[in-house]
Amino acid sequence: MTNGIRNHQVGDKVETYFLIKTSTKGTASNGKPFLTLQLCDHTGEIEAKLWGCSPEDEQAFCSQVIVHLSGEVSEYRGRRQMKIQSIRPTTAMDQVKVADFIRSAPISPDDMLDEITQYIFEMKNANIQRITRHLMKKHQTAFLQSPAATKNHHEFVSGLAYHVVSMLKIARSLVELYPSLDSDLLYAGVILHDLGKVRELSGPIDTQYTLEGKLIGHISIMVTEVAQAAEELKIDSEEVLILQHLIASHHGKGEWGSPKVPVVKEAEVLHLIDNIDAKINMMDRALETVQPGEFSERVMALDHRSFINHVSISLL
Amino acid sequence: MTNGIRNHQVGDKVETYFLIKTSTKGTASNGKPFLTLQLCDHTGEIEAKLWGCSPEDEQAFCSQVIVHLSGEVSEYRGRRQMKIQSIRPTTAMDQVKVADFIRSAPISPDDMLDEITQYIFEMKNANIQRITRHLMKKHQTAFLQSPAATKNHHEFVSGLAYHVVSMLKIARSLVELYPSLDSDLLYAGVILHDLGKVRELSGPIDTQYTLEGKLIGHISIMVTEVAQAAEELKIDSEEVLILQHLIASHHGKGEWGSPKVPVVKEAEVLHLIDNIDAKINMMDRALETVQPGEFSERVMALDHRSFINHVSISLL
Amino acid sequence: MTNGIRNHQVGDKVETYFLIKTSTKGTASNGKPFLTLQLCDHTGEIEAKLWGCSPEDEQAFCSQVIVHLSGEVSEYRGRRQMKIQSIRPTTAMDQVKVADFIRSAPISPDDMLDEITQYIFEMKNANIQRITRHLMKKHQTAFLQSPAATKNHHEFVSGLAYHVVSMLKIARSLVELYPSLDSDLLYAGVILHDLGKVRELSGPIDTQYTLEGKLIGHISIMVTEVAQAAEELKIDSEEVLILQHLIASHHGKGEWGSPKVPVVKEAEVLHLIDNIDAKINMMDRALETVQPGEFSERVMALDHRSFINHVSISLL
Amino acid sequence: MTNGIRNHQVGDKVETYFLIKTSTKGTASNGKPFLTLQLCDHTGEIEAKLWGCSPEDEQAFCSQVIVHLSGEVSEYRGRRQMKIQSIRPTTAMDQVKVADFIRSAPISPDDMLDEITQYIFEMKNANIQRITRHLMKKHQTAFLQSPAATKNHHEFVSGLAYHVVSMLKIARSLVELYPSLDSDLLYAGVILHDLGKVRELSGPIDTQYTLEGKLIGHISIMVTEVAQAAEELKIDSEEVLILQHLIASHHGKGEWGSPKVPVVKEAEVLHLIDNIDAKINMMDRALETVQPGEFSERVMALDHRSFINHVSISLL
Amino acid sequence: MTNGIRNHQVGDKVETYFLIKTSTKGTASNGKPFLTLQLCDHTGEIEAKLWGCSPEDEQAFCSQVIVHLSGEVSEYRGRRQMKIQSIRPTTAMDQVKVADFIRSAPISPDDMLDEITQYIFEMKNANIQRITRHLMKKHQTAFLQSPAATKNHHEFVSGLAYHVVSMLKIARSLVELYPSLDSDLLYAGVILHDLGKVRELSGPIDTQYTLEGKLIGHISIMVTEVAQAAEELKIDSEEVLILQHLIASHHGKGEWGSPKVPVVKEAEVLHLIDNIDAKINMMDRALETVQPGEFSERVMALDHRSFINHVSISLL
Amino acid sequence: MTNGIRNHQVGDKVETYFLIKTSTKGTASNGKPFLTLQLCDHTGEIEAKLWGCSPEDEQAFCSQVIVHLSGEVSEYRGRRQMKIQSIRPTTAMDQVKVADFIRSAPISPDDMLDEITQYIFEMKNANIQRITRHLMKKHQTAFLQSPAATKNHHEFVSGLAYHVVSMLKIARSLVELYPSLDSDLLYAGVILHDLGKVRELSGPIDTQYTLEGKLIGHISIMVTEVAQAAEELKIDSEEVLILQHLIASHHGKGEWGSPKVPVVKEAEVLHLIDNIDAKINMMDRALETVQPGEFSERVMALDHRSFINHVSISLL
User: Fold this and answer.
1) What angle do CA A69, A70, A73 make, to 5 degrees?
2) Please, which of A314, B291, D154, F9 could form a disulfide with D159 given CB 3.0 to 4.6 Å?
3) Which residues in chain D land under pLDDT 70?
């Protein structure tokens, strides 16, 4: 096999397997139908056009199908594009499976669960601990599979857990640096803040917003779940309210989707940590395929900025 | 008795009862303490200064006390002010009670409850009807007393119920005009949208935000209550989600406190009706003490605009 | 004939008449010219491509021509598109006329005029009544034909009158609910607020902005016309000024085109009613071709929101 | 007499005449009334407090009265204040008149009129020339007296004419530099753009907005007047429309009060010239009483900036 | 030769020379490569498509090559496009040179230098004069060639010098009109404000931002250069700081790229003059190819406005 | 001595030493002068009024004087105020010194310098290391004394160094978590980003902006200093440019004072770290004197939010 799409250069000849992520039919200016295939492997994605496709092709080359393809990496409007020479759907004979073509977190779900469990174990406040453990347990399976978003950052298998684990590490270093921070509250906030995404998003592959996601969103979902957990665990104290506030306010501002702005110190810090991990991840993603000295594509969620892949200063 | 504070002019001599709404201590430039009293009756409010007050005065003239006062209406920086000639706390002998001094809705709570009940009765969808009836019943007593806000509009006893009844009337006329509107959904949205204020606000007198109000707010409170009601009533259908969406989105935009913008037609219409009733109420309030041909004070919540009390055109 | 474009599904075979709304020439990537035809009937619109067109085709298939067409409804980038199998211009023999292909208000112009006349008749202030009647009479013919906009809402024959009639009905219900509202002023404001559109827009078919519309706009046009009407009728009183204010401020904010923000209560209410009728109309338009459970295209003028066509709750 | 308020320093003893611009009654913390007098001469203004005033004082020291005063310039919260030692109203014996105490343009009205007339005379397009001359003639007396604003810039007698003359000079230099500019249009725009202020403002002393100014504003007033002038002069050509556009758009943006943004080159240039003259005038005004090396008070209309009175570079 | 691209109408046959400004490869829907050529002469630009190009064509028709072309001006999506009938690269035999095809300032570099030198000569403050002369001398060659921007305004050979000369003329007329303005400071600010563009931009042909331009920009570059010049010339006085402030603040606002807003009067005026010259230039550019009575394309940098090419009023 | 101002409650009798931070003269409504004294010790500040002060008092009780005072902590408009019973300036006999009354960083300057030196020592890129060391050395004395701001955060002696040390610790933990980050660049950015404040601010006591601070600001100052250091050290490589970019962009947005937005990953991270340390410091400062369960005053720089001092969750 190859070293993955991400590392291919324009001009490379390719003969390998890909997963079709999405397949969209169009009509060319000569009136004939064609398919726009978004192909992926575990390292990245590339677009390909299948010109003059038959109705059978439409059936065969649809989303989630693994194909074998010969082609060449070309360029179109500044983006790499795969020029198809031949393409065929795979069969059992090819011995390939979908999981091999999907990007996932660099740490295994089990290891991440262990790490999160350790943070819960360290909590000193029993109410916070019980609510956090209860909700993690309730959604554990989905949580360990879920991406953290449909695009922009952590949009891969187990992306949500990976986002949480990274944030916990930053949280710990801030708790050490600023002793006035309440660690229980901050860790619980990190673990629960995006947990509602297991109901907001459709799952790790071809991720879409669910109806619930579109109508009420992961913040309202999780504020409600905390209330229900507290009821079930018969906890009725101020901690519940503060925990709900952390979740409700973690987007930081009304225009970013939070019904309340942070008025608890740990809520503001939760928002800042979320911001850091998401932004570094977005920049890493944008720079991944950029040559040294060149600028990335514009990143919508970072004010349409384009980032330079500068020379590695520390290694000069 | 007089015809109320609202109708007093500068220069009027006054000898009557007032309720102290708030009492704040200050220090004058001669170093002596004084009290700033916010006095009210059922028609409005006026400020008074009690200069050179003793520690006993501080005790005697505090919030919620009814006083008997002789004085004169003067003017300070364009606002009316009560100049105190004599003031004393009342006793049982005076036979006055707090309720007589508080502004309340022009319709009785019982009549408003009947009217709302009628709208619930008319609902055709059983799930919507049961959830609405369940939540109204649960909070009925508080709902019929609660103001709709701490200031700006409907900030009086039963203001919340009065706001809902007015909105229901507008809703009915729109349902008649636009047949595509779903009446059940719109009526339920109107009845429930602000119900969380019974937990967000402290009650009808000297209304404050509760801790819960400050940390999560009436929108998140009510989205959660709908979920809990549905669970209790064993209703698990799309209506629940849409009802939660109506509540979540009724402020119209993220920067106005809604975690989701309206994407259901009735949610947008709910927001528009809420807007109309609140704004007309605010303008009426601002114009209440303005002489014909004059402009009101600036209304913060209406983009700091000042409104003219124009001549009554239809009566010319 | 068929039941109209709006009700066609992808895959439907079509053999019927259409009106060409616009025809735009392009060059395909093979260097050959083609026409993009925007076809319409009285229920809606659909795009079609005429590939490899001759100079004669360009002449024949231009705007305002009625054609007979055989084809199939296909889909392109999520939008329905008409795939042309054969197309020909019609002749007198076909016995079709343009009026049959144009969308118009669901009430007849005469009925709408009667209704508006009734509101004018009810006015108690003679000056307001005379100005309103004078201007309605002056522009009556154009007013009854004019759309209310070039796109977004009420963009059809008699759309302006239909918009006014709907607003009058809302105005009446608000006047009943809020007795402090001045009905004469509000009704006159509703009737006149957009009347300048008869000079701002080019007319009901293929509606464009006139030079006057682009350079000064319907608000300035109408503020001027009220002044001229008052002069002609020898009315010189405060009502004229307030009426001009209602027109000038009815967009609500400077950034929405109003040279003055509303400072008269009825001006604010006029703006709110205008808003309601326009927004409900836009949502109805957006949802018109959306399947139950699906989301509409994004509506530019409603903050780019996409609306769900939810199940009809009241009918469940 | 002295060299004027503007040049007084803290600590200066003063014995001279002043005009009372405004007189406002207040109540001191000892319960006694006092007057806040805004005193002015032709160079500037200063505030004074008249403590413990009698009802007779209130009558005597009201707006537009000239007083004779002995006192000392002191400082309060960073602003100069006049400490009154003795004060008395003047009589005929004092031989002082209001006109001597009012700030006015540095050029005489007659000279300014001559200058403007010259620009009108130079116009080559008869329609533009006739409309401009007609409107200047109609409002000539008020125009030559009127200030250009109630505060911020050119808020003095003949300020409007002075603003126009300055702008005409800038306009001429731009016309010389950029030959593509249409001089007739630009000069007419400059002369007419703010002429509506003669109806928007109450006049040169204690300038207020008129009802007409508040309800429709000088832009709508003037757009209407151009239409009426054209009608009267029987001119019906595109020039009228473009002239109205220049007036309507001269504030540059909707949020700054223009119902249309400039889409004619001369309209944009008119806005830019207006901007320059207003801003330089505001900065000069703010810096007028500032010591070298110090910063001025914040100027609201210039984004709350504070300007430095730097050393005179060219003279070093 | 012809009278230039700018003056060609749709339908014109063309047989002439062009310079290829940019050449971009694409793939047509039939899978074949094509070139999009941006062609220019000294009057303007036009796009052309070279369909079905060979690898040799790609080599031959690249940026900076002069070609000889036969074709016809057509229209595509409202823009003119050159339809190529035949095209060939030129050789020495054609006797054409790049300089003939490039737009440049209407005044010669030498004349502009003379004019700027005159302003420097007039300066009375020796420090300001020496710094200005030093920096002009240092960058003289690049300055006289450089465009003032990559697009929008003065994006041609010597555009920067032309922009400076125009601004100096406006500055002089303002200095005459407002005697409080410090001419030395204003002239020096005009001459130096954009001088950093000689390092920010790559040069006059196919202008790009340099790495330095992207990372720190012409404002920071020039603030630094003034500090270095002052050090070198051993000038250590307040003038240096004020000069740096003029450069730093000349974009007027933080969101337009200035690290400080203007707090020196001449800094604000510098910003206003810069604005005027840039905006008039942009409008002239936009209107250059527009027929009388028509509207231009939308100008991004002028709030997306479209300007009308109105009839020449002064010539009617 | 006492345990400091910060810990005093309303009603406490106080007899101790204070430093006068600022002293401002006012005139009471009885016409007599008074002094508003801002008193401080090493824990916080409190305001006091000295009524009826003599000219000698004005001389004696000025900024930077240590006084001995008997008084009582009272409350005025929700803020604590010191009611003076007796006050006298101190003499050598009192054996008190200014340094004892000033707030400073909780770590000694020497320890902070050691820590920063260690980070410089670890740098692998010689150019980055040399520039950082050069500039730290150049400004070392001022840097170790300087506050980081005039208010809001780190506004105390050595506040700048303390801010840098905290940020370095966060930087190190992020470098460990995200291996793609270039540590040399990030550490150098942290150390240098605010170093220009030693020229922007007047020093640790009664901190003001210098003229240089107001006219060009610490960002432009430092971008220039890096250029000058590189010149002196004969370093001419891309690292210099990137380092300047980090400094120029560290406020994150144009409207927050950065002439360039971050386009280098480490620049964005530098901005995020700066944000975290500043915001946590501001919240700690705001909550410092707030009782458990109460809300703080509104914090201007944190969107006017008020923060709750919630119960210590981890200790429940």
Assistant:
1) 105
2) D154
3) 1-2, 29-31, 77-78, 315-316
pLDDT at E1: 40
Domain coordinates of chain C in residue numbers?
5-100, 109-283
| Distance from the A27 Cα atom to the nearest Cα atom in chain F, whole angstroms | 39
Sort strands E44-50 and E79-89 into parallel, antiparallel or unpaired.
parallel
Report the pLDDT averaged over residues C60-89: 88
Q: Which residues contact E249 (CB under 8 A, 6 or more apart)?
A: E258, E260, E261, E262, E263, E264, E267, E271
What integer pLDDT is reported at residue C313 of this predicted model?
Answer: 72
CB contact under 8 A, B170 and C173: yes
Contact across the interface for D242 and E313, Cβ inside 8 Å: yes
Contact A26 C51 (CB under 8 A): no
What is the ipTM for the molecules in this complex? 0.88
Distance CA C113, CA E301 (A): 46
CA angle F297, F299, F303 (to 5 degrees): 130
- Strand, coil or helix: what is B25? strand
How far is residue F250's CA from residue F256's CA, in Å, rounded to a whole number? 9
Confidence of residue C1 (pLDDT cuts 50, 70, 90): very low
Classify strands C44-50 and A66-76 as parallel, antiparallel or unpaired: unpaired
Q: Do chains C and F touch (3 or more CB pairs under 8 A)?
A: no
The structural architecture, per CATH, of the domain C5-100 is Beta Barrel (2.40)
Q: Tell me which chain D residues have a C-beta less than 8 angstroms from the C-beta of B74.
A: 27
Buried b (16+ CB within 10 A) or exposed e, B206-241: ebeebebbbbbbbbbbbbbbbbbbbeeeebeebbbb
Distance, CA of A86 to CA of D53 (rounded, Å): 100
Nearest by CB to D27, which of B30, B76, B295?
B76
Higher local confidence (pLDDT), A26 or E85: E85
Distance CA C248, CA A268 (A): 44
Q: Which of B266, B277, B280, B252 is nearest to B160 (CA)?
A: B277
Contacts F214 to D, Cβ<8 Å: 295, 308
CB contacts of A28 in chain C (<8 Å) are 29
DSSP annotation of B92 reads G
Candidates C50, C51, C81, C303, partner chain A, best to mutate (most A CBs within 10 A):
C51
Interchain contact, C214 vs E76, CB within 8 Å: no
Mean pLDDT for F150-176 is 94
Cβ count near A38 (within 10 Å): 17
What pLDDT, in 10s, does the model give residues C81-112?
899 999 999 998 999 988 788 889 999 999 99
pLDDT above 60 (res B99)? yes
pLDDT band at F1, cuts 50/70/90?
Answer: very low
**Cα dihedral across residues E90, E92, E95, E101: positive or negative:** positive
Q: Chain D: residue nearest C257 by CA?
A: D259
More confident residue, C218 or A237: C218
Q: What mean pLDDT do residues F108-122 have?
A: 97
pLDDT in tens, E169-204: 999 999 999 999 999 999 999 999 999 999 999 988
Cβ-Cβ contacts under 8 Å, B180 against chain C = 284, 287
Nearest to A245 among B215, B242, B264 (CB): B215
pLDDT digit string (tens) for C140-187? 999 999 999 988 788 899 999 999 999 999 999 999 999 999 999 999
Inspect the structure and tell me whether chains E and B have 3 or more CB pairs less than 8 Å apart: no
The C-alpha of D21 sits at a distance from chain C's nearest C-alpha, in angstroms, of 28
Question: Who among B25, B29, B215 is closest to F30 (CB)?
Answer: B29
Give the alpha-carbon dihedral of B100, B103, B108, B110, to 10 degrees: -90
- For residues E248 and E239, the answer to whether their CB atoms sit within 8 Å is no
